[in-house]
Design goal:
Blueprint (H helix, E strand, L loop, with lengths): L1 E4 L5 E4 L6 E10 L4 E10 L23 E5 L5 E6 L5 E7 L2 E4 L11 E5 L5 E7 L1 E7 L4 E3 L7 E8 L5 E7 L17 E6 L4 E6 L4 E6 L1 E4 L4 E7 L6 E8 L4 E8 L1
Antiparallel strand pairs: 1-2, 3-4, 5-6, 6-7, 7-8, 9-10, 10-11, 11-12, 13-14, 15-19, 16-17, 16-20, 18-19, 20-21
Length: about 260
C-alpha cells in the first residue's frame, strides 16, 4: 500500500488489498524534528457491487468525536450522535443535502453516550456524569427525562412502541475505585489517583491494549495509589483506562490532544 498526502492532516492509501480481511498499518509521522509511529487497521469488505459514498459534508462534528451512534428512522433519514473532547454531546440530522445540528448541545456530561429513536423518530440519549441520565429532544431543545437512573457504564438505550425508554448498564454503585484523571484532556502526561490498588490496562478505541501494569503505591498511610500516565507518543484521540481487581472494575476515558 502507498500513502498519498491529500492535505495538511489528511492522506489516502493507494493499493488497498482486494481480499476481505483486516490489515494492520504502521505509519511513521515526522515534523522534521521528531517522529513517532502510529498504528491503525484497514478493514476490507465486499460491497456487493455497490460503492460506498460520503453522505453530505465531511467533518461536520465539533472537536474529536468519541462515542458515535448512527440511527435511521422509518423513512430513511439518518441521525448521528457524537460526543467530543469538550464533553459536549450533539445530534445531527441529514436534511436538504447537509448535516444540521438538532437543538442545543448537551454539556456537562462525561462524553459517554448512546442514542435511540422512538417510533415517531424522536431521539433519546443516555449519558453519564457520575450518574446516568436520559434526555429527549422536544422539537427545539434537549430536556432530561425523569431523574437519574444509576451509576454505571457500558450503557445502552431503546425506546418501545409506547415511547417508554428502556436502559441497560453495568452497575458500579458502591463498587468503584473513585478514579480521577487530571488533567483530562491532556497531551499524554497525567496522574491517575485511586483509593484502591489494582491492575490497569489502557485501550485504544479499537480495543487494543496499549499499556498495562499495576497501580503504584504513593502513600501507604492514607491508602492512596496512583499511576503516572506518561505516553507522549500516543496519537490524538480517545482511549479507555480500565482498573480492576478481584472485587471491582472501573473504566474512564482519557482524551489525548
Amino acid at each position: 500500500m502507498t500513502l498519498t498526502i491529500t492535505g495538511e492532516t489528511t492522506a489516502s492509501l493507494i493499493g488497498t488489498p482486494t481480499t476481505e480481511g483486516t490489515y494492520p498499518v504502521t505509519l511513521m509521522v515526522s515534523d522534521g524534528n521528531s517522529s513517532e509511529q502510529q498504528y491503525f487497521e484497514v478493514e476490507v469488505v465486499d460491497s456487493g457491487g455497490v460503492d460506498w459514498h460520503v453522505v453530505g459534508q465531511e467533518g461536520f462534528t465539533d472537536g474529536i468525536a468519541s462515542d458515535v451512534n448512527l440511527e435511521i428512522n422509518s423513512i430513511g433519514v439518518p441521525y448521528v450522535m457524537s460526543a467530543n473532547s469538550n464533553n459536549e454531546i450533539s445530534v445531527y440530522t441529514f436534511e436538504n443535502d447537509s448535516w444540521s445540528l438538532l437543538g442545543n448541545k448537551i454539556t456537562g456530561e462525561q462524553g459517554q453516550a448512546a442514542m435511540a429513536l422512538a417510533p415517531d423518530s424522536t431521539p433519546y440519549i443516555i449519558t453519564v456524569n457520575c450518574l446516568l441520565k436520559v434526555y429527549k429532544y422536544d422539537g427545539s431543545n434537549w430536556t432530561q427525562v425523569g431523574g437519574t437512573v444509576g451509576n454505571g457504564y457500558h450503557m445502552d438505550i431503546t425506546v418501545a412502541n409506547d415511547v417508554a425508554p428502556y436502559v441497560s448498564y453495568m452497575d458500579v454503585t458502591n463498587n468503584n475505585f473513585n478514579i480521577i484523571v487530571y488533567p483530562n484532556p491532556n497531551s499524554g502526561h497525567c496522574i491517575v489517583p485511586s483509593n484502591n490498588t489494582g491492575k490497569f490496562q489502557l485501550f485504544d478505541i479499537q480495543g487494543r491494549v496499549i499499556s498495562e501494569g499495576i497501580l503504584e503505591i504513593v502513600d501507604a498511610k492514607s491508602n492512596n495509589y496512583t499511576y503516572i500516565f506518561n505516553h507522549s507518543n500516543l496519537s490524538q484521540g480517545l482511549y479507555l483506562l480500565s482498573i480492576a481487581n478481584e472485587q471491582k472494575r472501573e473504566v474512564v476515558k482519557i482524551i489525548i490532544e
